[in-house]
Design brief:
2 copies of one chain form a homodimer.
Chain A lengths: L2 E9 L3 H19 L2 E6 L3 H8 L5 H9 L2 E6 L14 H12 L4 E7 L12 H4 L4 E7 L11 E3 L6 E9 H16 L4 E6 L5 H14 L6 E6 H10 L6 E4 L1 H15 L6 E5 L5 E5 L16 H14 L3 H16 L19 H8 L1
Parallel strand pairs in A: 1-2, 1-3, 3-12, 5-10, 8-9, 8-10
Antiparallel strand pairs in A: 4-5, 4-11, 6-7, 11-12
Helix pairs in contact in A: 1-10, 1-12, 6-7, 8-9, 10-11
Bound molecules: 3-isopropylmalic acid (2 copies).
Protein name (chains A, B): 3-isopropylmalate dehydrogenase
Pathway (chains A, B): Amino-acid biosynthesis; L-leucine biosynthesis; L-leucine from 3-methyl-2-oxobutanoate: step 3/4
Keywords (chains A, B): Amino-acid biosynthesis, Branched-chain amino acid biosynthesis, Cytoplasm, Leucine biosynthesis, Magnesium, Manganese, Metal-binding, NAD, Oxidoreductase
């Protein structure tokens, strides 16, 4: 029997309750697919600050190092927003994990599920046009991590600066990830840049063109980031895979997520070159609805499916989960935020949705 | 009689034909308000490349220096897209003019006009919620102009870099512009940044807070750029003035423009500290529809109104133009892109719309 070990970092807000449902689903996978998915829970985020004094305790980092993958919930909340930035959950835990494990390849799918079009903030005809985008975001370089960064000077001339920086190697590996993904999808990569202004974007475009030569079956085009934010609204169905740098991917993936109108359904994967990865829902910790048993567990469950597919090569199990999710949506077992206001009394609870998927 | 001189740079694509209508309206203003608006036309953009060998000939720059304001059409097109980037119309003319005249304060209003909600790509209830946003974008600093910028290294480790850079003085003057604008509007400034990642954004936030102290009647809040692109889709009516750095303003203003669904109606102003400014439509040169007499001249005409208001202190004349535009829209004198497909045969031409506004 294949054995895998998973570091489970549930975190704050709705993290623990949606993680419980993902665990139920992983239990079912163990039985049905005869694998062993050993899970160990570790503290992270605000909860870890409260109990251990820091957002990413060393025992958590060590546990992640020993595992085959990290299943991540969500972190942060108003309680920890007044801490100095470097100690806050998002930076101290999430950005540190990304960079520590070199999780450069961030996949963020966003689709509008048939039947759920009315949740989209877009006009009905656009929402119904068949929207299914995969944002492939570079996650460990660019202006997030580029050096130097700092403050200098005095008085009104004091200035702050950040460095956007990309090497050919960094661009090439994320471009390859995008083309590989596009081959398994609709065969189209749209690379997002600002090549009319940024030198990094020109190198980005150059390398994207080079990589494209190895994928003659995939079409490549380029779009400026400002135009991309427009086209996502006007005609999102034109996009298959969107290849983005760290900052532009942050922006584009959030706009794509919002466009679906159902953030609670969207998973994400952040992987390195060895297949190790961190898998987390696209949405945040939603402290306002935490602890009420009404949060949607699907994003967490689909994140677990991505983990099985990409870090454990258990594509069949991932397929089974994804099919069960679609069946659950079609059966109308829906948490409140997916229902029109007048039908919210019929909403399923977090655990009812988990049970149905199991 | 007050006398003003205007450098008219019509440019490429639909630029010349919409400029003709703006000129008609300015002729009417001269008579009605007893002012003299002396206009001199200069070549710019692709047209200037073809006729003079460069996108911003020195006689054009000199003409702009001698004028009280620049009324700008639009530039660029496929014909000049294969030129080296530094020679292309957008960079060689537009970015050079912005920086030469220190046009740091870029105002880009975006509103959904009552009656035109169905043009918006947003869901009807959102489009009808009363959307009227002013994006105030810093235009002469940030990552567009920050030094150093370049390429270094060899082989796969060769890297490119850009510098995002802001001084306190640069942030303060654009923040003041945003607060001044908010005082005349609905009293709310939303500052857009990525302060959880960028040092420049932290300084941005710090100075925005300092400036806010001088405007106790204006409310200030902060939003991350990724969340901003989501909120613009989900609930754009929450925004009054959005204060943005150069790059984030490029993105936010285009998303706001698209959200209205009527790019042909949106003007913009780019001003320096002396009240000198460049006024141009938000949309591009639209080479695909150029020369057919079907382009919407309203964005150009409203740009002329902004010019009268901000560079010539002719608020009454600007008000009169803006009222005439609303009346024209209400009267249904509309170019084709504002009409549903089945009514396009009743579309007004570029010059009919201009005449109606006159
Ligand atoms: C929390 C923040 C630093 C993070 C980012 O900008 O990457 C988040 O927005 C995300 O997209 O995962
Ligand atoms: C043409 C381009 C350089 C320019 C910019 O990015 O500023 C344009 O997108 C704009 O917004 O005016």
């Amino acid at each position: 029997m294949s054995q895998y070990s998973i570091a489970v970092l549930a975190g704050d807000g709705i993290g623990p309750e949606v993680m419980q449902e993902a665990n139920k689903v992983l239990d079912a996978v163990e039985k049905k697919f005869n694998v062993s998915l050993n899970r160990t829970a570790y503290p992270v985020g605000g909860y870890a600050i409260d109990t251990e004094g820091e957002a990413l305790p060393s025992k958590t980092l060590l546990g992640c190092e020993q595992a085959d993958a990290i299943l991540f919930g969500s972190i942060g909340g108003p309680k920890w927003d007044t801490l100095p930035l470097e100690q806050r959950p998002e930076r101290a835990a999430l950005l540190t994990l990304r960079s520590h494990f070199d999780l450069f390849s961030n996949l963020r799918p966003a689709r509008i599920y048939p039947g759920l079009e009315s949740l989209s903030p877009l006009r009905e005809d656009i929402a119904k046009s068949g929207v299914d985008v995969l944002v492939v975001r570079e996650l460990t370089s660019g202006i997030y991590f580029g050096q130097p960064k700092g403050r200098e000077g005095e008085g009104e001339e004091e200035f702050a600066y950040d460095t956007m920086r990309y090497s050919k190697r960094e661009i090439r590996r994320i471009a390859i990830a995008a083309f590989e993904a596009a081959q398994k999808r609709r065969g189209k990569v749209t690379s997002v840049d600002k090549a009319n202004v940024l030198v990094t974007s020109r190198l980005w475009r150059e390398i994207a063109e080079e990589v494209a030569k190895d994928y003659p079956d995939v079409e490549l085009d380029h779009i400026y980031i400002d135009n991309a934010t427009m086209q996502i609204m006007k005609n999102p169905a034109q996009f298959d895979v969107m290849l983005c740098s760290n900052l532009f991917g942050d922006i584009v993936s959030d706009e794509c997520a919002m466009m679906t109108g159902s953030m609670g359904l969207l998973p994400s994967a952040s992987m390195n070159e060895d297949g190790f990865g961190l898998y987390e829902p696209a949405g945040g910790s939603a402290p306002d609805i935490a602890g009420q048993g009404i949060a949607n567990p699907i994003a967490q469950i689909l994140s677990a499916a991505m983990m099985l597919r990409f870090s454990m090569n258990l594509g069949d199990a991932a397929d089974a989960i994804e099919k069960a999710v679609v069946a659950t949506l079609e059966a109308g077992v829906l948490t409140g935020e997916l229902l029109p206001a007048e039908q919210r009394e019929n909403a399923a609870s977090t655990s009812q949705v988990g049970d149905e998927i199991v």
